[in-house]
Amino acid sequence: xxxxxxxGLGNMGGPMAxxxxxxxxxVSGFDLAAEARAAAAEKGxxxxxxxxxxxxxxxxxxxxxxxxxxxxxxxxxxxxxARPGTLVIDTSTIxxxxxxxxxxxAQAAGLLSLDAPVSGGTEGAVAGTLTFMVGxxxxxxxxxxxxxxxxxxxxxxxxxxxxxxxxxxxxxxILGVTMIAVSEAFxxxxxxxxxxxxxxxxxxxSSGQCYALTTHCPVPGxxxxxSSNHGYKPGFASELMLKxxxxxxxxxxxxxxxxxxxxxxxxxxxxxxxxxxxxxxYAAVVEFLRT
Length: 291
Ligand code: NAD
Description:
Elements lengths: L2 E5 L5 H10 L3 E5 L3 H8 L4 E2 L3 H5 L4 E4 L4 H14 L5 E4 L5 H13 L3 E4 L2 E2 L1 H7 L2 E6 L2 H12 L2 E8 L3 H29 L4 H8 L7 H4 L23 H18 L4 H18 L7 H6 L1
Parallel strand pairs: 1-2, 1-4, 2-3, 4-5, 5-6, 8-9
Antiparallel strand pairs: 7-8
Helix pairs in contact: 1-6, 4-5, 8-11, 8-12, 11-12
The structure holds nicotinamide-adenine-dinucleotide.
The site of nicotinamide-adenine-dinucleotide (NAD) has 25 residues, from helix 4 and helix 6.
């Protein structure tokens, strides 16, 4: 597979497309934003002026877009332009319903398709160390795995169409809830005179251990690489966490699943984003919870 169309060359898509170009693929990229197109051109991507032009002659097409509506619209264009048998992979984080609708568009056009949302952030996109959570049939997964391996390190087949998005939504509900729990614990420690480092040393090697604590520690000091040591510059912006918690709540409501902590986490991030959290890393919720 040598020729790839790439739609959506933003913070994630730009570096992912660059890694495909670096690996020797001919990457034809399109983005609505002139800034994203210019940055991609500097990284070895052949920038084109439409979705159709990116898809023309491609063996595979990858999308990295902000919303389910954008994915549905772009996949409709891809389905109209791609040769039968072309593999289409969406790496955006979107709702399960839109993901399954996009698969339907691809299937009707005789294309192979995967939903493959990622974890690992912009740093992982640049370094090619992302984790992909993949939904789709076995034939599509077998075709897509080598391509995903150019952009990531772990590729997990989660089952049928839409299951990649389902896994992403469940995972990020855990992350949102645990970041709030860890933040509350540090704020409680402050009130009782327990130093942050002491709580970290205990919890990081005890039953309180979790990613929000040991990798994204919300208070400065214990984890030098966490955003709390860098003015809470994202990283993972709080409004993106809010988006993901909203997606998990939509699925919970539609399926009748009881997720009271997921619902509380969504409400907390909703208020945090509205009251100054937008553009700050999600770990800054520790300050919001302190007030
Ligand atoms: P971004 O806003 O930087 O990039 C999205 C790009 O899509 C933009 O450049 C935009 O111009 C382009 N775009 C929108 N509609 C388009 C269309 N119709 N045709 C062509 N281009 C179009 O966002 P991002 O941070 O790169 O995130 C992309 C996706 O990855 C999102 O779904 C996000 O939730 C997910 N994600 C982001 C991160 C992160 O840390 N940034 C981590 C995991 C997953």
